[in-house]
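Model: Ready when you are.
Researcher: Fold this.
Model:
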Amino acid sequence: MRVRICDLKSGRRILDLPYLKASWTSEINTAESVSATVDLNDPRIRRLGLYNATWPGRTALIVEDEHLTVGGPLWKRAYDRDAGTLELTARGMWSYFDHRTLLPVMTDYDRLTNPDGSADTRYDTNLNNLSYETIAKRWIQQSMRWTGGGMPIVFQDDADGTFQRNTKGAELKLIGDLLTDLTGVENGPDIRFQPRRQADGLGYEWMLMCGHPRITSPTVTKWDMSVTRSPVTDLTVEDDASNLASITWRTGGAAAEKAIIERGVDHTLTDRGFPLYERVTSLSSSVINDDVALDHALEDLRTSAMPERTWSFKVKRDHRLGIYDAGYPAMIKTRNDPWGIPDGWHPMRIMSLAGASDSDDIQVRTGVTYG
């Protein structure tokens, strides 16, 4: 495992950090987390001048662990003089956009409202006839046009689509929240900011990766629990019926002073002997399009069809298992399970990974499957 810091805005000025301990998570559709603790009595650390080299909000913290690279803005640092340590805490690049509003470039004197108090529509962001992944791309690109907003982010090519997103500037929507909403619609894209080395190797950049709709891999990692020396330990399986629904409701429209109410209906649960369940969720007040609300209702319906099952377990670091990451498909084989999990291979999708410098294990958590 290697830990590095660099300048956040440029990705340059990489410094290697000898560390006492380090940990990371790898996730999609949210910001990853990274932390490292260094010994300030180590002469190698002293020479780095970390007081000035690790300003929160100006520095990025990166961890490379075998084939995985995670990291983003450094948000916190904690100095313990008696212990002689400095702890650095960062999150993925997504976290930066939790601090950026979706607005076209404005001068310091522009206002979002007209003299009569109405919203100035010149600062709305209207995107039409685009794919979801291109909408996400346009949002990020617009934010980078602001003075100081340029970031070392690279993009995939545009993809064709027929979707639209119209966002009122006066709503002051945070881009991070909008990205989260976009991943939650029916067939919404997976979104991830993946750090990687720049072409010359002297800096880092972040690739805005968007699935169509899923970020995935053509290869499937397989872990066999039926063998004597299984690489899998600490398996837990959780079933959760909290979100069961045969009818899902989505509401919105407050910004347009009109009611938006859409629903999805699926009788599968009641046909299987379950009682009727309903689920009601409010959308952003800026959602004024019936189709957008319906997309959300249908996606809620898809994820409410059966109790949600998640698998959590540990695997040993082993490069022979191939490359796997959050979003990638995987399978676990069980046999003679005491609880009664059926024998055979169980397909799943990795949603998060976590590792630490003091363990040879990688913690794996899968996405929801249905029992």
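Researcher: Now this one.
Model:
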Amino acid sequence: MNPLNTIVYEPFGWYGEKEIFKFTLTNVHGNYVELLNYGAIVKSIIVPDKNGIKENVVLGFSTLEGYIKDKSYIGATVGRFANRINNAEFSIGDKTYYLDKNDGKNNNHSGSAGFNSKVFDFSIEENAVIFNLENESGDGGFPGNLKSKVIYKWTDKNELKIEFLAATDEPTPINFTNHSYFNLSACAEKIQHHYLNIQADKIVESTEDYIPTGRILPAGKYSFCHNKLGEVMKDGGLNTYYVFNENKDDKNSVCELFEEISGRIMRVFTSYPGVQLYTGDYLNSAEIGDHSKFYQPFDGLCLECQYYPDSPNHVHFPNTIFGVGQVYNETITYAFDIMIAEN
């Protein structure tokens, strides 16, 4: 049993010639988070339900092999550019850059340059695990040598705080997020029974292959105001970008996810202008062995706080092109608590 208020790490396997470690961050209550330096992954988040039973509320695997084979970005840090880029290309000035077409004709989550399969260097401070990555210019077609940090902190208030930092030596698009799949019932049920609130009256209109048209529309039937997910998902799953209301600030939650039977609630705080809600429609990940796990559609949902999809190709979207001397610095906090539903 790990002592309380500690960060410890242990070997978790090898990826090529690089050793992978599992980091366990335990708070004063004995609740803990596990991380990997492969993909700067969130492996597990162990928090109590209303009866004090501690369970994992994110999808994850017990072996490194499960993550290496996974195609669903389970728990991963996503970069250099999260989400899709139309036709796998963008221009900066008069120069066009061509990326991997790994999602039909489009680029998704940076293709071969994706941080989800990179091995990060690491350091440990008193209350933080810091993952570092240097990504060379030209990787996956992206310009600029990029130096990145992903900083994780786990507080005594059961808050997983994530900070993304990056700097480049030539202009390049940057958009990081975390791709954890949450299920506050600890996978006792599918996500349709969760309640969700998103502080967003507008969404980014997208085509059938999730590429923005450039229009910002009222959320309408896709709005979430403490709705059951199943009620809004009547026509199938959701993979929708929500634009946070203009009165948002870093001190108030932008999303709340609640599961009634467990009593668990997760509040999301972020510096980003919006969130991609993905209900796990295409989940199809398996880990075969002593701890076999088979993840299928709607076993978990992602709340991927990030910049707008395909931003480099829409001049009226918030800018994601960062140049020399600029520092990319964004935050996401997932805060866990218990809420007893009123009869």
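Researcher: Key takeaway?
Model: The chain has one domain: 6-338.
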